[in-house]
């Protein structure tokens, strides 16, 4: 029974204005009538297509929630109108100096896209929705990047941006704000760290080049050994290779005079 009663209490409409409030409202109408048409300059408000107006009368929001777009009438002295922009708003998160998990100090900045989906909540629940979202984005950026190493930050920018967007959206939902997108713009390293990383990359490239050169020499040695085995098994192949070498020499240096010596003569010298 107690739970049912509490739910009924929540569903009941709020109490209306008191006697003093109605007196002030009547007095406001009198001011409007006696100052007409000059009062129209202060009592007629225009809300644009992309805006919504939250009207507070004596500190209370008028029934029906946000108004707009269009032309509205407000009472002088007792009505306050707050215009809320419903378009997507973009702001840059100021560069933050962050100590990573592996104790490297870096400077990171980001960009955030958000929009207000509930004007009434954004006026009631938070003093300045845009400014609060900016501060929260900077704090969230530091908290998320502080739990990751430098290598993870450089490689997983998209994952970090997605985690940051989800964290911001969960917090700003009670403010009537929807965080649509977050992007990590730039990660700046200290000068000494940049030099160390450049030296490491250069050493890695040199080591890879030496490995490739060694593999090439190994393959060339294997091919040369196979060729030597084939020439050793076939003396005719050795003669053909000899003639091919003479042809290459004569083609490159035309002024050179070549006297070919039979291979059999060389063999006779080697035997002696």
UniProtKB/TrEMBL annotation:
What parts of the sequence cross the membrane? 21-47
- Report whether Acetylation shows up as a keyword of the record: no
Q: Which residues form the Band domain?
A: 42-201
Please state where this protein is localized. Answer: Membrane
Q: Name one Pfam family in it.
A: Band_7
UniProt xrefs under SUPFAM superfamilies: Band 7/SPFH domain
> What do the Gene Ontology cellular component annotations say?
plasma membrane
Ion transport recorded as keyword:
no
Just give the chief location class: membrane
What PANTHER family does its record include? AT06885P-RELATED, BAND 7 PROTEIN-RELATED
The protein depicted here goes by the name Mechanosensory 2
Originating organism = Brachionus plicatilis
State the taxonomy lineage: Eukaryota, Metazoa, Spiralia, Gnathifera, Rotifera
